[in-house]
Design a protein that fits this description.
The structure is a single chain. By secondary structure, the protein is of the alpha/beta class. The protein has helices spanning about 5-15, 50-55, 85-90, 100-105, 110-115, 150-160, 190-195, 205-210, 225-230, 235-245; strands spanning about 30, 40-45, 60-65, 95, 120-125, 135-145, 165-170, 175-180, 200, 220, 250-255. The chain has a six-stranded mixed β-sheet. The longest helix is centred in the last third of the chain and has 14 residues, at about 235-245. The protein is globular, with a radius of gyration of 19 Å. The structure holds zinc ion (ZN). Zinc ion binds near residues 67 and 183.
Length: about 270
């Protein structure tokens, strides 16, 4: 049985319940008719000019993104002003975004990074206790044995597929306890420091916020926004495929193979 858009929504919301999203966020179905078929679902971080072409070439009926396609109120939907939104509607693509819902949930973005690093999850970095145990943004984690600084940084690079990391702070390692926040975790720097971890891995850090922590005994790793979130998409696609299969649906989940970090080092 081919799933409908509403069946995909139901499955995604089992993986990333929408009530876990931050208030300012816009998770959920952005475009689409819940009653239409969704035989092919395309998964990517952002729906933009490139990924929409990739999705259409893959025969997608629906796209699951991490970043919301619609964030601020839209006043026109035209080919000039909102080309991706316009195109998606014209092509009949449904779009669902699981953003901070997939950040907060147990098993979400930061859990995937910690898991791949071989660290054990101790709890959320910024708990949302009212939402449930273990839920919240970022994760505090620990290694069974302290990891020397060089080996730790090499492991981060390997897990995130990076050759270079932006490092700040005066931490020398070894590293036993870490904090992880995929995406943009600058606002949790102080919290990470207060928690006594030897390293904090996140992305999108600003000069002004990092500067005040430069002398602190912590290895601050800015691994970039894209790498620290795209690493968690295969897991999302796999979980979705499993859940749909368990419910007797036949469909195809396609993970973007072409989406790239807009930043590069030259
Ligand atoms: Zn993000």
């Amino acid at each position: 049985m081919v799933p409908k858009v509403k069946d995909i929504v139901h499955a995604v919301e089992k993986i990333a319940p929408p009530h876990l999203a931050e208030n300012w966020d816009n998770c959920g179905l952005q475009i689409g008719d819940p009653e239409e078929d969704a035989g092919v679902v395309f998964v990517c971080l952002d729906l933009d000019g490139a990924t929409i072409e990739e999705a259409l070439a893959a025969g997608a009926d629906m796209v699951l993104t991490h970043h919301p396609l619609i964030f601020s109120p839209v006043k026109q939907i035209t080919a000039d002003n909102t080309p991706v939104l316009y195109r998606a509607i014209r092509e009949g693509l449904a779009v669902y975004s699981a953003h901070t819902s997939y950040d907060s949930v147990v098993g979400g973005v930061s859990d995937v990074i910690a898991d791949k690093l071989g660290a054990r999850i101790d709890g959320p970095l910024a708990p949302a206790a009212e939402q449930g145990d273990g839920v919240g943004i970022g994760r505090l984690c620990s290694f069974d044995e302290p990891v020397p600084r060089d080996e730790f940084l090499a492991r981060v690079k390997s897990v995130l597929g990076l050759e270079t990391l932006r490092i700040a702070g005066a931490g020398k390692g070894p590293v036993k306890r870490i904090a992880v926040c995929g995406g943009s975790g600058g606002s949790l720097l102080q919290r990470a420091l207060n928690s006594g971890v030897e390293s904090y891995i996140t992305g999108d850090l600003k000069y002004s916020s990092v500067r005040e922590f430069a002398g602190e005994n912590i290895i601050i790793v800015d691994a970039g926004h894209f790498p620290t979130e795209s690493v968690a998409l295969p897991e999302l696609a796999e979980k979705l495929a499993e859940l749909l299969q368990e419910n007797g649906f036949e469909n195809r989940i396609e993970l973007s193979g072409k989406e790239e970090d807009p930043f590069r080092y030259e």
